[in-house]
Amino acid sequence: MSSPTAAELERECSLFCRYLADIDATPEMIKSYQHAHEIDGLRLSSSTPLDRSLMTLAGGGAALTRIADSFAGVIAPASALRRKLVILIAILESCSPSASKVEIATPGSRAAWVVSSAVYAAGWLLRVVVAAVLLSPLRLWYGIAASR
Predict the structure, then answer these.
(1) Does the global pTM surpass 0.85?
(2) 53/61 Cα distance (integer angstroms)
């Protein structure tokens, strides 16, 4: 598989910044993200069919990125998508415009935390189910094809 172009990585970085922190990517963030893709040890290329499927789904927008990430967190935690998101979180934490947005704790009562956690968990479960419906047939197909 060929390496993504600088323009593709810029689009990907912008999309993932919107998903992770609801911010616009700065030129510094994009440059750092592009540089991370030059480091072979990080294994950020989408080398497996499932990786490519997750990246294709995630490329459809922040909502689809959320679905792909929820699925990958359960089924493929070492996927290229998850590695890319972890790298980008580190970049966001180290860049001054976004560091405070990423690291801020939201104040509130314990009851509000319980309710918001339950809503978040229900949303996550729904996303995993939707992603499973979309991606499990691919995972099954590629698993069967790999065993031949």
Answers:
(1) no
(2) 14
